Prior knowledge:
Elements: H1 5-8, H2 11-62, H3 68-78, H4 82-109, H5 111-119, H6 125-150, H7 154-210, H8 223-254, H9 257-290, H10 295-322, H11 324-331, H12 341-364, H13 368-393, H14 396-428
Helix pairs in contact: 2-6, 2-7, 2-8, 2-9, 3-4, 3-6, 3-8, 3-9, 4-6, 5-6, 6-7, 6-9, 8-9, 8-13, 9-12, 10-12, 12-14, 13-14
Amino acid sequence: MKIPKFLRENIVLKITSLNAVVITIRLIVSVFVQRLLAITVGEAGIASIGQVRNVMAMLTSTSTLGIFNGVVKYVAEYKENKPELTKLFSTTTLFLFFGSFISAIVLFFGSSYFSNYLFKSDDFVYVFKILAVIVPFIAINRAINGVVNGLSDYKKYAKIELISYLLATLALLFGLYTSNLEGVIIAIAFTPIIQLIVMGFVFGKTLKKYLIFKNLKLNLIYKNKLLAFTLMSFISTFLLNYIEINIRTRVANDINIDEAGYWTAITFISKNYMVFATGLFTLYVIPKFANIHTRNAFKNEVFNIYKTILPIFGLGMILVYLLRNVIIEIIYPDFKGMEPLFKWQLLGDFVRLCALVLAHQFLAKRLVKSFVVTEIISLVLFYVLTIVFIKHYETEGVVMAHLVRYIIYFIIVIFVVWLYYGNKTLEKS
Length: 429
């Protein structure tokens, strides 16, 4: 049977389908690992693991000074212009050095504070000292990942993601077997080193074509362009994870630690299926939007993305909801308290996906003010609505806040993007 041309040549579908293979394997492995963790460390352990994962996400921002999306954008624009790429990589190197150094110092000397803030004890001081040493690897890994995404090399991206995940999972299982929860946390801390080694093997030859070390001249030519992304990353990555840590702590304090574990579990399931979209955004959406300059072309591309991925995501989310009790029984035995959270989380994630496709225009076009304003509104909404709803609906209030937040955010993003192209039309006339 011959595949129709519009399907055969649809890059969005190619990236999504290849991603689907990787994510499906990840999900199968993840089901086994999460079940094992739930049985072994319980709700409180799952909540602690959630805290560590949030810290790791924050470090991907601080260690690089948040320039990941900037690297994606400019590599996509200048991949045929080696001299311009050299200028970009020269500035990137300095950003990585400063970001890693500052992050490492803060982690090392603040290890006691972070351990007590996140885990209410001094038991994990050593973990933050280990992270201080690992920070440069996190930075280099993140920057190279930006190059992979900027080149839209989705086949190598898929290979790197799969191999890294499987090796990191083995490390996590070894940590769980040898040292229980502490071993798991250490394994999570070492994951960036595993990812960097895999990236070197899979992407090393390609990287050498674009990154010529002898041509690097440490300078800050791209400083202003990349600093815009630093601000955007601080808002979207650092503040988001900081707020998640605070919400988890509030749930644990105001209700109980088990409820914090239920919310962490539902967000983990959410992050697993949202990974389908993450690769598409950085591999396709940002590079594509960066080279679109008219409202009609943008509108056509957005509809192309929507009609390709929304039916797939919608069907997947419906299946997750219908099978929610089976999922709980398989992945998180005895986590019955998370069942009411599914409907709100799934609805919120669907609206979020619709909004994020449009919002990546801000990254692609370096619309700093638009990005910062909309993200701050989104984060403030999430935190304030959570505080309000949690009083009346307890843990369910957190995921209700998640849905309401993204409905409002989507409406605001539509308005801001429409305004941007309206102003572009006026400038031309």
